[in-house]
Amino acid sequence: MTPFPFQESAWSSFLGGGSGVINVPTGAGKTYASYLGPLAELMDAGEAGLGGLRVLYVTPLRAMSRDVELALKAPVEDLGLSLRVESRTGDTSSSLRQRQRRKPPEVLITTPESMTLLMTYDDAPQRFAGVRAVIVDEWHELMASKRGTQVELALARIRRFSAGRARTWALSATIANLEEAARAAVGEGGEPLLVGGEMERPISVRGVLPEWGHDPDNGVECRLPWAGHLGRHMLPAVLATLDPGVSTLVFCNTRSQAELWYQSILQARPEWAGIMGLHHGSIDMGDRGAVESGLKSGEARLVVCTSSLDLGVDFGPVERVLQLGSPKGIARLIQRAGRAGHRPGASCEILCVPTHALELIEIAAAREAVDRREVEGRAPFSKPLDVLAQHLVTCAMGGGFRADELFEEVRTAYSYRGLERVEFDWALDLVERGGETLRAYPNYRKVVRGADGEYGVVEKTIATQHRLNVGTITGSETVEIRYKNGRGLGHIEESFVGKLRRGEAFVFAGKTLRFERIRDMTAVVTPASGVTNYTPHWAGTRLPISDSLSVAVRRTLERVRDGRVDAEREPELVAAQEFVGTQAAMSAVPDADGLLVETAETREGFHLFVYPFDGRLVHEAIAAILALRLGRASPATFQIAVNDYGFELLSPDPYPYAECVTPDLFTTERLLDDIVESVNVGQLAKRQFREVARVSGLVMQSYPGARTRGKQVQANSSLIFDVFEQFDPENMLLGQARREVMEKQFERTRLSRSLERLGSCEWSWRDVSAPTPLGLPLVIERVGATMSTESVLDRIERMRAAWTASENPAGGGVARGGVS
Predict the structure, then answer these.
(1) Rounded Cα gap, residues 290 and 230, in angstroms
(2) For 748, which of 237, 247, 324, 742 could close a Cys bridge (C-beta 3.0–4.6 Å)?
């Protein structure tokens, strides 16, 4: 087989001593581009078969390790080399791990956590001294997380152990800030190389449109609802696209949505039971592995999944990909589309299923953004001290360190290039003496400085606990789900189980289950018959629309308003014209760079609707700040609702919105102070501190032979947070928790850009008689958040009936709306 030019470039770059990033589309051959250069060097140097770790292949998912291992073994077997290629992850047996300790393989496939574990042994300097190549797969996924920071620190350590001979090659398919990604992988001081090429994979983005028909109950033509995210009204259209003869992945954005859609499809097509699968991160690992094997062998023809199948596992037989709902991001769309026809240069198609009318706009906007290559950038973390604190203990266990030397080494990691010595010393004091406030507790004195100035770990208990808690993955509090016979099904959140009554049925892992009891962090269940839609909900699974897609949506909405639609290429926009037309008739449709503001008076009160189209996280912050600033101008109480398109403020009493809501209200002056005052940042920071405390080692999630209950981890971290706030308010981990809240909860960087745009753009102000197609989804969000005993559908139906057709200048457009 003739190699591609980018592969030859990667090989020669490695053999020439270079490090960098290989950036080509999914399925183009990045693995061999990164691997065959190191393999050739081993052969030329006569080191194949001599033993000792030479090549590290780091993958973010344990599920990928088996596929990667088979791929890396293939050329070794073809060439008849005496060279061991093995995996080491959390799934590796203890006997194999012990053998690898005694005699490491030349090529090791591992995860960030397992690689760090290897660095906790006292022979780590010798073990990693011979490493010549570290390959980091799916770098775009790792880089913007603390797992990526953990990898950066490990790479800095390996460069030191190998005296600079180890080269790093990161692999990526979808990333915009490529140069920054390369610097993060290579570290400070190195000059990264960028290897790519004209390896285009044409991507077709097509919408699945519903069957139009007449609704005799309402006397209107059926259309997509104006709100909702599950989209099960689209089941007939989805079933029409599914064919057991065509291997298909059906992607959902949330695990709850995946569970419900799997059940819905199976209920409609029970004959597909033997060829369908369900795959998401909470399902038992063995069951997920069976689904993956079925995809590769062709036995599983239709799999409903989440982001758990986004990344690099090679499912060659997959021919079609569906996306239920908007992908919410361009990179995610490209990644998922690339699962189909996973071959170099092969075109791929993704069918996007809208769950409500505005997602017709999102689908067309995403296609335009893909064509324009407007992929989102991903920023590395900036010197997180919790990861550094954990790394200090790892280094102390793995051969020891001297403070001055390690400080300089850590600063070669891109995320810590701006680390100040006072910050390093603060983190060192935290793990050496417990910092200012925890000095009296021996369990926080983890590292000990010897007479020669070298730090180490002397307590075996501390070493064992550290190894059990290595890593930066901090899942929510979960309990295990098991049948009475002990067979595991997976994990669901503790809060969901706490609400279950004995005998209550729910859906999980594609099965209907009956809750029996909970014991020792395990929920015991039995199979149940019948049909139920009661499904676990996982925290933090609603994806906000990305920056790139929000810009594309504003552009596309303006095009539909102005009639600039290619009917043949953009059938989604043809279908969206009624929605947009109703919005224009009742109010207005904003320009791509403009802002639409609406006011309305209903029986509920006095509404202000604002539509920046900047994503729900940004809108949460803007709405809270606006309510605060309006309250200063004229005291009032507001209810707030947000979605990806805008936000609503509702006052029970008349409020002078027209006088008070001005562009000056969107100033970025005192932004941080106003966020702190308008939102309970202290409580949010306390919640975020759980992750910071866990990663830094202030609280332990696992102990020998036991796992701490989620509530206990929460209580311990909350106690430490309160102690720090009272006795050490300048504690650097408290500051880090607050910064992370600003970025994770409110996307502070994007928030500032949004406020600046809104304060300077053209405004369209409309007073409307009832919530418009853009406003009704916000009403539904608010009602759903505050409902008590009656369902959202019942309450919305009452509202819809109250908003009579005579109030609607569009001739009953509201009556066509709904919720799914």
Answers:
(1) 26
(2) 742
Q: The dihedral of CA 618, 623, 628, 633: what is its sign?
A: positive
Instruction: Report the 10 Å Cβ neighbour count for 373.
Output: 10
668 burial class (0-12, 13-18, 19+ CB within 10 angstroms)? Answer: middle
Q: How many other C-beta atoms can be found within 10 angstroms of the C-beta atom of residue 652? A: 12
pTM: 0.88
Helix (H, G, I), strand (E, B) or coil at 239: helix
Q: What pLDDT is stored for residue 218 in this prediction?
A: 44
Of 485, 524, 489, 481, the C-alpha closest to 287 is: 489
Query: CA angle at residue 227 from 643 to 252, to 5 degrees?
Result: 80
Cβ(155)–Cβ(413) below 8 Å:
yes
From residue 198, alpha-carbon distances to 5, 180, 417, 580, 712 in Å are 9, 21, 33, 39, 53
Q: To 5 degrees, how large is the angle CA 241–CA 243–CA 247?
A: 110
Contact between 813 and 585 (Cβ < 8 Å): yes
DSSP 665: G
Percent of the chain as helix, strand, coil, to the nearest 5: 45, 15, 40
Over the stretch 205-225, which tens digit does the pLDDT of each residue have?
999 998 754 344 444 344 688
Beta-strand relationship, 167-172 and 20-23: parallel
| pLDDT confidence of residue 805 | 43
